[in-house]
Amino acid sequence: MVDFFTQHILSFAIWLPILAGxxxxxxxxxxxxxxxxxLALLGSLASFAVTVPLYTLFNFADGGFxxxxxxxxxxxxxxxxxxxxxxxxxxxxLLTSFTTVIxxxxxxxxxxxxxxxYMASFLIMSGLMIGVFSAxxxxxxxxxxxxxxxxxxxxxxxxxxxxxxxxxxxFFLYTLLGSLLMLxxxxxxxxxxxSFEIVDYYRLPMPLHVQVLIFLAFFAAFAVxxxxxxxxxxxxxxxxxxxxxxxxxxAAIALKLGGYSFLRFAMPIAPDAAHHLSGFMIALxxxxxxxxxxxxxxxxxxxxxxxxxxxxxxxxxxxxFFIFNNLGLEGAIVQMVSHGFIxxxxxxxxxxxxxxxxxxxxxxYGGVANxxxxFAAFAVxxxxxxxxxxxxxxxVGEFMVIxxxxxxxxxxxxxxxxxxxxxxxxxxxxxxxxxxxxVANQHVAxxxxxxxxxxxxxxxxxxxxxxxxxxxxxxxDMTNATVxxxxxxxxxxxxPAGL
Amino acid sequence: MTMQQIYxxxxxxxxFAAIIIGLFGKFLxxxxxxVVTIAGVxxxxxxxxxxxNHAMTAAPYNETVYSWLKSGNFSFExxxxxxxxxxxxxxxxxxxSLMVHIYTIGYMAEDKGYARFFSYISLFTFxxxxxxxxxxxxxxxxxxxxxxxxxxxxxxxxxTRPTAIYANLKAFxxxxxxxxxxxxxxxxxxxxxxSLDYAAVFSVAxxxxxxxxxxxxxxxxxxxxxxxxxxxxxxxxKSAQVPLHVWLPDSMEGPTPISALIHAATMVTAxxxxxxxxSPLFELSSTALSFVxxxxxxxxxxxxxxxxxxxxxxRVVAYSxxxxxxxxxxxxxxxxxxxxxxHLMTHAFFKALLFLGAGAVIxxxxxxxxxxxxxxxxxxxxxxxxxxxxxxxxxxxxxxLSGFYSKDSIIEAAKFxxxxxxxxxxxxxxxxxxxxxxxxxxxxFLVFHGKEKWREAHHEDHAHDDDHHHDAHHxxxxxxxxxxxxxxxxxxxxxxxxxPSLLIGYLAIEPMLYGDFFKGxxxxxxxxxxxxxxxxxxWHTIFHSAAGMAIHGLLTLPxxxxxxxxxxxxxFYMKRPDIPALIQKRFATIHCILEDKYGFDRFNDRxxxxxxxxxxxxxxxxxxxxxxxxxxxxxxANLIGKLSRVVRKLQSGMxxxxxxxxxxxxxxxxxxxxxxx
Lengths: 499, 677
Fold this sequence. Notes:
A: mainly alpha
């Protein structure tokens, strides 16, 4: 039994939350929402528990895929159910299963209509996203990638804000276009290799122009997801319309699907193109960091501001990828994990206010610290983390990427470092307007401080943000071997001999 | 206890105290806040004193505490470097912090944020200790930003006041501008030296002296110059050097104890400490040193001028702090690092004293801070009066007092320096002596002597530039009240700070500047930068001893300048109070420029703050909303919509439409084939 489990940890990680979600749906009883909630919580905790061995059993010296399992799925096309996770995937899988627990607790009494459907959407989405992070077969990956969109559409479409249809359609069109190009790339690669095994693609030599096309096809899918400038405009709309849980999952995990996929597909399959186009990718990243930060500065809606802040922070992820050194790549991964915690906390914090006042506008608030001092303390902590204060996780990734970038070009680091100023400016200016000052209006005067449930989730996230900031080494120990291996793979040209 | 455990305990005790009081303060009795934190910082101080004593004989301690992060070939560590420089800083930080903790019991007695305040200042002590004890650039940056965080929290401590929450945001952002340069400097160090460990970097630095890098095109720049200037930009933010000084005067919105601790004695001197720590790097670039020197001279002189026209007691002291930080920077620029650290230490004592004295006056005056409403307080507040007089005399450089030794040494060092900009620096620090004496004693006379002006004052016109805050803290004394000196918790720190303000210079100058206190810690290239060597030569041939220097000092120009500054202040504000008003009218333009603080704030508000917002909103409304969403995204959707309308029209159901389309189609296909083949 134990053997069976340790041989199939990833399958458990994928299917347990999905089964739990189905179970929640089947046992749904509108008269007893608490039963549904507890069941969902149990399901999410169990799903988190099964991912913990991925860390405890992880072989830190091995840069390749671990926990591999598989069987043939569709023989005629050589499609396999093949799973495995390396040092890049495991932290993101853990982040996913953890975030699901947070989302379930955060929704506890906030979601009153269709509780079961809401909880089930997140549980199922969690399994599907873990599937994306652990699939080693292109078609399997693609199925998970597309399937996870469905619960996300439902979450925004059913529990979303007034303009949710526009946001959902925009989100759908953006991602669909990118995904189709990715599918074309997979079909081309299948024709060349006769396989859907991702590792087979790593070994496939290709001339530069083919690599560039493959890279751009992947780029279309992943750049939208991360998102990179200029295909980012779906994200603020989606966030504004999404319910709190949707925003949390969107920011904490969904964006990382794009970042992860760059490392899994675009870069190792087309390494020469990645080098060839690195200037272009770095330019887009730096635009995201500076341009988007300035845009964030003038937002009036808190969720929009945090959404733009996310895009700006994701600029560090793509910048870290395309400077091709350890500091940059590992910094990018740390940044992804850290952003998972911080953005989740920030969106939850907005949710705390929204649940009470039903407004996300900054000018609807003022002086919240007077009536919610505990909450204000958390908010300042997370704001500082979002501005990259040392000692919080937000610093680690940015620090590493900036130090990595300066080794490639001083000016990359110079532009990226503007985040020190602008990141602090937009975050702390929002804090000033929302939390400080005299009590601004009757709504603020009537605010009640955090309840135990809200305190619990913010405290857990605060501990993680501080923990990762004070001692990030366990995370980089995990990524080290994989990143080193990836970099040496990227350094080898895949151009066919004689070209 | 092993030494390592002691080193760990020193920063961790205040941290634990801060955590306990910060998290559980509201469940504990009020007194727990000061008992726990004072115990923490008190033990820290005793241990620091022990460490300093130990460091006098022992070799420097340089060890890693834990490995923070490893990535590729780079590893980042948290570790301690305990040599005499850091040991001395630890003693200064914990001593002033202890004094401020005790003082706070009195000053914040009625504040509802009592526990929060103690938690913050203990957290500050921890951060500052981590900064000075660091053995690498990364931890330095950690401490650097952490003290910035606590400064942000404390300036905005009274978070309902619009001026306070404006000031703390401003302080944080201006510091971030400095950190921008600092981080890039650290990046260059890591890239070119392969490590962030001080010892490793300093040992290879001499070999890198002639390394050039290309930044713009093919123009080659000296690596050392670029790195040092970038690091110094960080120091300019933290140590409030022009033009990044703008946050410090506004930071006076915070409670007075933290003005003493953070914005006078410790945090703002972090930049000075950093450059002294980096002396092996800065010595390799005379260009960078000249840059440091000029910035320091400008700060020393022009910030002093602003002190003259301030009417808020705290702001006078704040501009004085800016000016004195300029002096320290001048000392760094002329490679007299030990003198800079010496002045840092004496200044920590007498400036903390002056701030705490100002705080006592503010308490006595019931939170009126306008010196024009004061007068003759010596009668009511004798301890405050005497200690403030000692602080002022030390500040202006009265022989035998601590400030004399450090400031005169800076002036002498500037005189002996040969580096570019040293002529201007010498002029600036000399003129500064007169200015310092004038504004210090203007304040002193107005506060402690003369008529009891609150008896006739109208409290509508407070010195506070802002009419917004009318809370409990800004009452002012009513004409019939007498000011009272606060209790012992306030007086004791004043007395304990007055003692080193009197004596520390006399006792410490010989070992610190001319002994081997900083041997192996501070590195000076005497051939390139001989000022310090000249100073030592002077000492050994003319002064011989601290007493000799003081006696000699009575006959020198700086003393004459200081004395005439005091005399002029007495004449203007005691003897003929009508003259200042006349001058103000006569030289209205100059007065306007000074009132405007040279226009820095206006410029920053209009250009940087408003500019960023303008660019941001343009990028958003034009870039995102109009171009990307409007033209591209919705444009695509609209295009598809339009196309589908066209296509819909084709499906009209009329047979002749289809027939027509078919004929056209056949026509085109036939033409295509006939033309092609």
